[in-house]
Amino acid sequence: FLPSASPFTCRKLAGCTLFITGASRGIGKAIALKAAKDGANIVIAAKTAEPHPTLPGTIYTAAAEIEAAGGKALPCVVNVREEQQIISAVEKAVKTFGGIDILVNNASAISLTGTLETETKKVNLMMDVNVRGTYLTSKTCLPHLRKSRNPHILNLSPPMNLNPMWFKNHCAYTISKYGMSMCVLGMAEEFRGEVAVNALWPKTAIHTAAMDMLGGSGIEKQCRKTDILADAAYCILTKPKSFTGNFIIDEVLLREEGVKDFDVYAIAPGHPLMPDFFLDILFLVGASQASKVSGSQLEGPEGARVNAGAAPAQPLSAVAETFRVIQGAMSEEYVRSTQGIFQFELSGEEGGTWYIDLKTKGGSAGSGKAPVAADVVMSMSSADFVKMFTGKLKPTLAFMSGKLKIKGNMALAIKLEKMLTQLNSKL
After folding, report:
1. Which terminus in the chain has less CB density within 10 A, N or C?
2. What is the pLDDT of residues 215-264, one digit of tens each?
3. Per the database entry, which stretches of residues form a coiled coil (predicted)?
4. Coil, strand or helix at 105
5. Are 159 and 248 in contact (CB under 8 A)?
6. pLDDT per position as a tens digit, 105-152
7. Residue 407 within a domain
């Protein structure tokens, strides 16, 4: 999808051999297809040989697409947890294509669960696939990469960010992804001048089968296509081997390369995009100013401003005051356009159960459970709830950072965010 006049659309990867883990679907396959258009050789090192009951694609269907795009494909059954399978696939690749020029460590496992909720087998899976698999595949390919004219290793892993926020809600997953990034730090220096080693990470959520499972129905509208990572990867892999040790964000690199139209990468052009994990700066983008309130102002938890209005002798808590304002702002229009019931399970100083009914005629909001079963249950701290409803914390950002947990209809949760934008001026 890069501009036709771009300098990196000529066949720079023609004849190159790419060994890509997890290339049967998603981001790995997108990178493979991009290189295949140049006439590259692609080793599809992935687990899925037989069709999966819920996930699309096998190493053989991916191979057919790669060949149709103009490349040569070598499908290999590889579970990166099994060292011998990696070794056998690398030997087969060298025998078939004469060597390996590029390794893309894309295979990854994810479980966004807290320490006590993460089963040992899930911890083992993430550590084995993300860290150990990346390390062993790199180790096995490196002797062959060193013989290439312009060798590259590219890991799909984030810039390392020691903000505790990125550890507290999914410690095991974060450790495993940062393990991949530490491979970049170490190997880039160890093989400087011989092999380029870099990391690539998306600025926004990318629509894959994994994202569908994590986010549920409607999440795709907040995502970009895998094409953006394929184009960014192509830029990196066609640079000289002196370009090494970098942690690259897809959009940042493509802007530097002259790409201006990013709507082509959006699933739903114009729709707000969900930022990806580990990128703090995104949490500052789009955050609204402190909400405008009338009457006297009280400082709620963590400095959240709430409107006291005609306050009673005992001022309402920040949460109760927020629901009072929401109830006052109810309208038939909100009810007609939303058609959902939201339950909030709040923890912390002002914890408790609250609801917003935007399905029943006239709508209502208050403490306790909703009059009928909730379509969406949201769990978060009372302090973050107040921030979210006063425009200081966007729901999508709260969700991606783990501050907000959502069960139920994700599309309705997105509708609520739209309503909040309109309500902010009243809260």
Report:
1. N
2. 666 788 889 999 999 999 999 999 999 999 999 999 999 999 999 999 99
3. none
4. strand
5. no
6. 999 999 999 999 999 999 999 999 999 999 999 999 999 999 999 999
7. yes
Whole-angstrom distance between the N-terminal and C-terminal Cα of the chain? Answer: 43
* 273: helix, strand or coil: coil
Residue whose tokens read 């390919």: 141
For the chain, how many residues are written? Answer: 427
Any domain includes 294: no
Q: Do residue 341 and residue 277 come from a single domain?
A: no
DSSP code of 145? Answer: H
- Amino acid letter for position 339: Q
Nearest to 152 by CA among 94, 93, 105, 85: 105
Cross-strand partners of 352: 346
| DSSP conformation letters of 299-359 | E-GGG-EEE-SS--SSPPPHHHHHHHHHHHH--HHHHHHH-EEEEEEEESTT-EEEEEEES
| Same domain as 325, residue 277 | no
* CB-based contact 25:56 (threshold 8 Å): yes
Neighbouring residues of 118: CB distance < 8 A, sequence distance ≥ 6: 111, 170, 171, 172
Cα(3)–Cα(232) distance, integer angstroms: 13
* Chain centre to alpha carbon of residue 140: 28
| Helix, strand, coil fractions of the chain, as percent rounded to 5 | 40, 20, 40
What does the alpha-carbon distance between residue 153 and residue 195 come to, in Å, rounded to a whole number?
Answer: 7
Q: Which among 59, 64, 49, 52 has a CA at the least distance from the CA of 23?
A: 59
In a domain, 1, yes or no: no
Q: Answer whether 74's CB lies under 8 Å from 100's CB.
A: no
- Spatial separation of the C-alpha atoms in residues 366 and 374, rounded to whole Å: 13
In 10 A of CB 369, how many CB atoms?
12
**Catalytically annotated residues:** 173
What backbone torsions phi and psi does residue 343 show, to the nearest 5 degrees? -115, 140
**Is residue 291 domain-resident?**
no
Domain interval for residue 162: 17-285
Same domain, 241 and 343: no
User: How far apart (Å, rounded) are the C-alpha atoms in residues 281 and 161?
Assistant: 11
CATH code, 145: 3.40.50.720
* The pLDDT of residue 10: 66
